[in-house]
Amino acid sequence: MRAAAILLISAMAVTGFASAQTAPEQVTASQVSHYQMGIERGCKNKGRQRGDPVERVDALCACMIERMKASLSQAEWQQAFYFALTRRPEEEMQVVAPYLPTLQTCKSRYE
Length: 111
Known about the structure:
The protein has 6 helices and no strands. The protein is about 65% helix and about 0% strand. It is an all-alpha fold. α3 (about 55-70) packs antiparallel against α6 (about 105-110) and α4 runs antiparallel to α5. The chain has helices at about 5-10, 30-50, 55-70, 75-85, 90-95, 105-110.
């Protein structure tokens, strides 16, 4: 499963949040948490749509989000959420792109 596709799906995770933030620093911990859950949910939905075994999809997606949580700083999570919220996927991807290679361990283990 491509990490870029998962992040694009994450845009759905931020729908319903008012775009009152004018800067990434204004993004709350709660919003970051919802964003992270949305990424994991998007990953699981994509895997299930492809017909992959549920257990494998759940394990892969859990591994991927845990790796991302361990890699990105709070400020980076805030930036990624903010760019998703303001519909700027290229900038969202620039924030997380340096960490995508760390997800290869998960893919190797579960795919």
